[in-house]
């Protein structure tokens, strides 16, 4: 593979390397069951014809699929604007992996976000312990100036109270009492990342 510690390629040039070209060609052949080249090229030519144009102009309805993501992504993006501030999302790791990859792809640089890694037990009994441990770890590992907390839909469905949880975490010494931990409830099942921001 062409990656090494000295030479780390972004995904666009990386996928142009011969190893990846070969792998993608194999994948296409074996798993994508593509149409023959002739059919693809005929279709491409058809899209340039007057008939195709008329068909498009004859459309009576339009479905718009807006590029919207869930609320916490907006909150994470907002927190990224503050110096040495780390986002802490109270919820599951999978959601946070999605925000990180989304922002990393967009900005073409790594994006740090931590989660309280809620799993089944936290979903049943509440995520207080995850918040207490998570804030302590984040404070120790990243030495941030501020930790900005938001929530995923799981934490909102079970009704975790961020204000109470953060106060409890401070009482247990996860972060100093005067350390800034702003928070926003960002239920992912209403609105979009715009509301979250
Ligand atoms: S919609 Fe809910 S489960 Fe999906 S990424 Fe957003 S917070 Fe996570």
User: In the CATH hierarchy, what is the architecture of the largest domain at level 2?
Assistant: 3-Layer(aba) Sandwich
* Portion in beta strands: 5-15%
Under CATH at level 1, the class of the largest domain stands as Alpha Beta
| Helix-strand topology string | HHHHHEHEHHEHHH
- Give the CA-CA distance, first to last residue: 39 Å
- How helix-rich are the residues, as a percent range? 40-55%
Tally of strands: 3
Strand order of the largest sheet: 2-1-3
Principal-axis shape equals elongated
Number of helices: 11
**Which ranges are low-confidence, i.e. pLDDT below 50, for 5 or more consecutive residues?**
none
Rg, alpha carbons: 23 Å
Bound molecules: iron/sulfur cluster
- Kindly report the average pLDDT value: 92
Question: What structural class should be given to the helix and strand makeup?
Answer: mainly alpha
Largest sheet: 3 strands, parallel
In total, how many domains does the architecture comprise?
Answer: 2
Instruction: Tell me the name of the CATH homologous superfamily of the largest domain.
Output: Nitrogenase molybdenum iron protein domain
CATH topology of the largest domain: Rossmann fold
